[in-house]
Amino acid sequence: MSPRGGGDRSMVPEAEFRSYYGRPIVRPPVWTHDIASYLFTGGLAAGSALLAAGGQATGDATLRRVGRTVTLGALGASTYFLIIDLGRPERFHHMLRVAKPTSPMSMGTWILASFGGVAAVAGAAEFAPLLPSRLLRRVLPPAGDAAGYGAAVLAPALATYTAVLFADTAVPSWNAVHPELPFMFAGSALASGAGVGLIAAPGKPARRMAVLGAAMELAAGHRVEHGHGLLSEPYRQGRPGKLLQAARLLTAAGAAGAVLGRRSRAVSALSGLALLAGSALTRFGVFEAGVVSAKDPKYTVVPQRERLAAKTEVTGQP
Amino acid sequence: MGSNSLYGPIDPATDAGYVDPPPRMGFFTDTSVCIGCKACEVACKEWNLVPDDGFNLLGHSYDNTGGLSANSWRHVAFVEQPFAGDALAEAAGTGTQFLGMPLSDLPGKATPGPRGDFRWLMMSNVCKHCTHAGCLDVCPTGALFRTEFGTVVVQQDICNGCGYCVSGCPYGVIDRREGDGRAWKCTLCYDRIGDGLTPACAKACPTESIQFGELDELRERAARRVEDLHEQGVAEARLYGHEEDNGVGGDGAFFLLLDEPEVYGLPPDPVVATRDLPRMWKRAGLAALAMAASAVVAFAGRRG
C-alpha cells in the first residue's frame, strides 16, 4: 500500500484497491456550484464587514461606506445561493426550528442570520440620508455604528464555519484537510475583503489586509494541497487542480500588486480584482476537489485500508 | 448529551433522551445464504411506496439497481469471482442446487459436473442505522431523528432537502430524491416495528439471509454463525459492522460477508465525521481569531 504524507508524488504509486464495479462508496455531494458561490459571497461579506469596521474605527468614511454596501450585497447573494440549493427552497425556514452544535449547517444558519441582522442595519445606515423619515435619519447612523462592530465580531465566524461545514462530512478530501481548511477560508475571505478596498479606496489598511489574507490562504492551501498524501491528490489534479493553481497565481499576483503598485490607482484596482477572482476560484477548486474524491472509491478505500493496517500493526490484531 | 455522544459505544435511544426505551432493533444480513432473489428490494418498494429508480441494464452481473439511493432502500449486490474451492457449496454437501437463476439449459437437465473455479457473492445492502449516525448529526432541521428502537428516520414533513445528510453518511446510503427534493432512506419499517411486525424486507426474505430482531440477540446469533462457518471450512466468513467500538459506534444493521467489505461496495473502516467535530470547531475558532487579528493589524496605527 502507498505510504502517506511527504507530498512526494513518486512515493504514491497507482493505488491498488478493490471496489464494487468501480462505483463510489460515499455519495458524491448533491450540492451544486451554488454552494461554491456561497462560500465566496459569504467570505466576501465577512471580509468586507471587517474592512467597513476598520474604516469606521479609523474614520475612513469611504472604506466604511463601500465595505458596508458590499457586505449587504454579498449577504443578499449568499442568502439566495443557500436557499436556491435546497431541494425544497420554500422550506428554508425549517433551518430555524433547531440550533444543533453537531450540525455545522445549523450553526452556520444562526451565524449567518445574526450576521445578516447587524450587517443589514449597518448597511441601511449608509442610506439614512435618503430616507423620508426624520426619526430614521437620526437613529440609523449611531445604530449602524454599533451594528457595524457587531458584524465585525461575527464576520470571522461566518468566514470559517464553512470550512467545518465541508470538513464534517464523509467526503474524503474535505474531511482530511479539516486542520487547515478554516485558515484557507479565513485567508480567502480577508483577501476578498481587501480586494474590495483596493478597488474602491486603496490605502495602507487594504494593502496590509491583502498581504495578510493572501499569505494565510496560500500557506494553508499549501498544506491542503500537499500535506495529506493520497487525499491531497484531488487538489492538484484535473479541473480542481487547475482552478486552485489559477487561484494561487491570482492571489499571489494580487497581493504583490497591492504592495508594488501602491502608487497607481489602476494597478491597485487590478490587484483587487485579482484577489477577488483568486478567492472565488479557491472556493470552486476546493468544492470540486471534494466532489472528485467522493466519486472515486479509491479515495475512500485506500486511506481506510491504510488506517486498518496501521491499527493492526499497533494492536497485533486484525 | 453524554460525554460519549459523538463517539464510542453507547445506547443511542437512551443517549437521545428516551427514558426506558424498548430494546434496540436491527438487521443481521447473512450473505452466505443470500440467493440474490431481490424479494427484499421489491417488498421494500411495495410497503414503503418507493418509486422506481429507472429501468437500466448496468452490465454489473444481475445487479441492475446499482446501489442504495433515495429510491432503493435495499440493494442486492452481485459479484462474480474466480475462486478455488468453494467451501460453502461443499459444506452444503449436496452439490449444485438450482436457485432459480437463468441457466443455459433446462433445469435439472445439466449433468452435475465438478464445480468450477468460480463463485457468486450476493449481498442485500441497507441503511446501517449507526449508533453515531453522520446523517442525523449534521441534519440542520431536526428532520432526521432517533427512534425509541435506536433506528434513524427522516421526517418527510420537516426535511427541506439541504443535502447535508447525503455527504454526512460514511456508507453513501441516504440520498436526495430527484423531483421531490427531500432526503430518503430505509426507516427500518418504523411503521411496522412499532406494531410488532417484521420489516418488509426481512419478512419477504425466503432464506432468512435478512434477520430482524433485538440487536443484542442478533449479535450473538451472528457470532455463532461465523463460528459454524469457520468450522465448516469457510475461512473467509467475517462479520462487518457488529463491533460496538467501530468508527460509528456499532451498526444497527450488520452483515456476514465472504470477502472484503469494499468488494461489496462497503467502506472497510468507516468513521463518523462528527467524531472530530470538537477539534474542527477548535481549528475554526483559531482561524477566526487569526482573521480578526489580521484585520486589527491591517488598521493598526491609523487614527480616526
UniProtKB/TrEMBL annotation, chain A:
<feature type="transmembrane region" description="Helical">
    <location>
        <begin position="146"/>
        <end position="166"/>
    </location>
</feature>
<keyword id="KW-1133">Transmembrane helix</keyword>
<dbReference type="InterPro" id="IPR052049">
    <property type="entry name" value="Electron_transfer_protein"/>
</dbReference>
<dbReference type="InterPro" id="IPR005614">
    <property type="entry name" value="NrfD-like"/>
</dbReference>
<keyword id="KW-0472">Membrane</keyword>
<keyword id="KW-0812">Transmembrane</keyword>
<feature type="transmembrane region" description="Helical">
    <location>
        <begin position="66"/>
        <end position="87"/>
    </location>
</feature>
<feature type="transmembrane region" description="Helical">
    <location>
        <begin position="107"/>
        <end position="125"/>
    </location>
</feature>
<feature type="transmembrane region" description="Helical">
    <location>
        <begin position="35"/>
        <end position="54"/>
    </location>
</feature>
<protein>
    <submittedName>
        <fullName>Polysulfide reductase</fullName>
    </submittedName>
</protein>
<comment type="similarity">
    <text>Belongs to the NrfD family.</text>
</comment>
<dbReference type="Pfam" id="PF03916">
    <property type="entry name" value="NrfD"/>
</dbReference>
<feature type="transmembrane region" description="Helical">
    <location>
        <begin position="181"/>
        <end position="201"/>
    </location>
</feature>
<keyword id="KW-1003">Cell membrane</keyword>
UniProtKB/TrEMBL annotation, chain B:
<feature type="transmembrane region" description="Helical">
    <location>
        <begin position="284"/>
        <end position="301"/>
    </location>
</feature>
<keyword id="KW-0479">Metal-binding</keyword>
<keyword id="KW-0472">Membrane</keyword>
<protein>
    <submittedName>
        <fullName>4Fe-4S ferredoxin</fullName>
    </submittedName>
</protein>
<keyword id="KW-0004">4Fe-4S</keyword>
<feature type="domain" description="4Fe-4S ferredoxin-type">
    <location>
        <begin position="118"/>
        <end position="149"/>
    </location>
</feature>
<keyword id="KW-0677">Repeat</keyword>
<keyword id="KW-1133">Transmembrane helix</keyword>
<keyword id="KW-0408">Iron</keyword>
<keyword id="KW-0812">Transmembrane</keyword>
<feature type="domain" description="4Fe-4S ferredoxin-type">
    <location>
        <begin position="25"/>
        <end position="54"/>
    </location>
</feature>
<dbReference type="Pfam" id="PF13247">
    <property type="entry name" value="Fer4_11"/>
</dbReference>
<dbReference type="InterPro" id="IPR051555">
    <property type="entry name" value="FDH_Electron_Transfer_Unit"/>
</dbReference>
<dbReference type="InterPro" id="IPR014603">
    <property type="entry name" value="Formate_DH_Fe-S_su"/>
</dbReference>
<feature type="domain" description="4Fe-4S ferredoxin-type">
    <location>
        <begin position="150"/>
        <end position="179"/>
    </location>
</feature>
<dbReference type="InterPro" id="IPR017900">
    <property type="entry name" value="4Fe4S_Fe_S_CS"/>
</dbReference>
<dbReference type="InterPro" id="IPR017896">
    <property type="entry name" value="4Fe4S_Fe-S-bd"/>
</dbReference>
<keyword id="KW-0411">Iron-sulfur</keyword>
